[in-house]
Specification:
By secondary structure, the chain is mainly β. Strands 1, 2, 3, 4, 5, 6, 7, 8 and 9 form a 9-stranded mixed beta sheet that branches. The termini are far apart.
Length: about 230
């Protein structure tokens, strides 16, 4: 009798876990936070890209780089995410670039939808706060790529990181412009390195869907912050 009761209880717990997305079984870290790209907006048929004035990045790397204390920029995203599948790489939080997840995604302090973001990120950080540092960094390069039409992007949505860039700007210090040739999805990436060049932190990206208005102007329909997981 006791064994039957135990099995019945275990089944109930398992069912609840399945309905809840197995939250206690999924310990994947959230995307890292960063300050890399201040703004990227359509302007006169181009994308105008401005790197951040004081770039920084979260990492679990043991880097010989200055850390950041007393950040002025808000770190907590605005809003909360409903769990969603798809969007490249799977995982928890709002992942659905191009699948309707934009409306329910949490927002970063710059108003971008947060890829794989969600309330779980704060819980993960509380459990791993000793492992994460926020380093001062430099934007060593900016890359821009056309990822494809909306239909193509639905079938092949790249995850975080570097992609084959159509244009790369080395050592960017001022705003850059990239000519927009067509509607569809674009990625703007920033290669983040330690100020002394000793550590390469990889790429932070902004993915955006660009449409054309009836008057012929380009506008952004969706904009996502896409970062590797910590």
């Amino acid at each position: 009798m006791q064994r039957r009761e135990f099995l019945r209880s275990a089944a109930v717990v398992g069912g609840v876990a399945a309905l809840g997305g197995c939250s206690f079984l999924n310990n994947a870290p959230p995307p890292r936070r960063s300050n890399a790209i201040a703004s990227v907006e359509p302007q006169d048929g181009t994308l105008r890209i401005e790197p951040a004035d004081s770039p920084w990045i979260e990492s679990r790397k043991d880097a010989a780089a200055p850390t950041v204390a007393g950040l002025l920029a808000p770190l907590s995203p605005v809003g909360s995410a409903r769990a969603a599948k798809g969007g490249g790489g799977g995982g928890r939080g709002a992942t659905g670039r191009g699948t309707g997840g934009f409306a329910s995604a949490p927002r970063t302090s710059k108003g971008r939808a947060w890829w794989h973001g969600g309330d779980y990120a704060d819980d993960w950080r509380e459990n791993h706060e000793d492992e994460v540092e926020r380093y001062r960094a430099t934007v060593a390069a900016i890359g821009v790529a056309f990822l494809g039409s909306d239909d193509r992007f639905e079938d092949d949505r790249p995850g975080a990181g570097e992609v084959p860039w159509d244009e790369v700007y080395q050592d960017p210090e001022q705003a850059k412009t990239y000519e927009i040739s067509r509607e569809g999805w674009y990625r703007v990436g920033a290669n983040m390195v330690a100020a002394d060049g000793s550590t390469d932190f990889g790429w932070e990206s902004v993915d955006m869907e660009i449409d054309r208005t009836a008057g012929g102007d380009f506008v952004v329909d969706e904009k996502w912050k896409v970062s590797p997981r910590l």
